[in-house]
Amino acid sequence: MADRLSEVRLGPYTTLRLGGPARAFAEARSQGELVEIVAEADRDGEPVLVLGGGSNLVVSDDGFDGLVVHVSSPGVEVSGEDGRVVVTAQAGEDWDALVARCVAEGWSGVECLSGIPGLVGSTPIQNVGAYGQDVSQTITGVRVYDRMTGETSDLTAAECGFAYRNSAFKEDPGRHVVLAVSYELERSELSGPVAYKELAAALGVELGERAPLGDVREAVLELRRGKGMVLDPDDPDTRSAGSFFTNPILSAEEAAGLELRAPAYPRWDMPGGSVKVPAAWLIENAGFPKGYERGAVRISTKHTLALTNPSGEASATELLALAREVRDGVEKKFGVLLVNEPIMVGISL
């Protein structure tokens, strides 16, 4: 059993650098150790927070009154034939390092997800996506520990309930602990069809065309750097949780209501008549520009969707106050309620 520490401050384990102490803290260095630690805490009735890379997390200033289990289980296995490869990575693997390996090996399907901070274990929970790709397109299975049954099992992609930035894991956050994830990729030096206009322009290709994997990775990293979305200790804009709000998906009726308030609003038509609206546009046009400050926190100077802790000295309370101001301002002007993307621990928006 892993050693336990007491009163470990959680801020340094998150990209926002926010959060008070954990009453108890343990490091899980293997899949078996992760199951053992969580199972024992559950038997003892102890609250548990499973912590990965902390890139999509906002922890309260009071911290967590229970056991924080930090996932650091390594390991990658590769199998496959006939032009396909299945890459199974343990939950504690660094996500971008895995993407870099896939690109270097000529395994196509996750190259547009370059530069996203965090660990493999978080990718199915959020259905991590960017630049026209998301992990639900390649995940074939997720190995989990089911805290309700006390058993380890392998879930199919269909059982994961993937949706836009959502999954069955996010809907029922206390039930499953992700242990490993399998991705089925194509053996190819070319990317999947480029599905995002900004990326296509950066690559100099048409939408739907394919491009060399390395070129796609570098273009994505460059685009993300320009938005402060690649972790850099010298860039205060990267002290964030990435996109703080998801892009709203409106029903046809809701979209018609928004059109009355903003006739020229940008939109992406979705199946079933729904419409996706860029949250960044809503935020900026509600009066919250890049660099908008409130005390020690601010909107990123590079991307309106990121709320940042530029000095590293802000509090979670200050960050949530700014988030509420932005959310309420957008709702007042456009009648659209923004939903936070990061997971909240001990606080709510």
Describe the structure.
The protein is α+β, with helices and mostly antiparallel strands and 349 residues long. The chain has three domains: 68 residues, Uridine Diphospho-n-acetylenolpyruvylglucosamine Reductase, domain 2, CATH 3.30.43.10; 151 residues, Uridine Diphospho-n-acetylenolpyruvylglucosamine Reductase, domain 3; 110 residues, Uridine Diphospho-n-acetylenolpyruvylglucosamine Reductase, domain 1, CATH 3.90.78. Strands 6, 7, 8, 11, 12 and 13 form a six-stranded antiparallel β-sheet that branches. A four-stranded mixed β-sheet has the order 1-2-5-3, with helices on one face. Strand 18 and strand 19 form a beta hairpin. The protein is globular. The two termini are 36 Å apart. 44% of the residues are buried. The model has no long low-confidence stretch (mean pLDDT 96).
Within the CATH hierarchy, at the fold level, what is the topology of the largest domain?
Uridine Diphospho-n-acetylenolpyruvylglucosamine Reductase, domain 3
Low-confidence stretches: none
Helix/strand order, N-terminal first: EEHEEEEEHEHEEEEHEHHEHEEHEEEHE
Q: Name the average pLDDT.
A: 96
- Beta-strand fraction estimate: 25-35%
CATH class of the largest domain: Alpha Beta
Shape annotation: globular
Q: What is the CATH-assigned architecture of the largest domain?
A: 2-Layer Sandwich
Radius of gyration: 20 Å
- Percent helix, as a range, is 25-40%
Number of strands: 20
- Biggest sheet layout: 6 strands, antiparallel
- Amino-to-carboxy terminus distance: 36 Å
- Tell me the domain tally: 3
Distinct helical segment count: 9
**Overall SS class:** alpha+beta
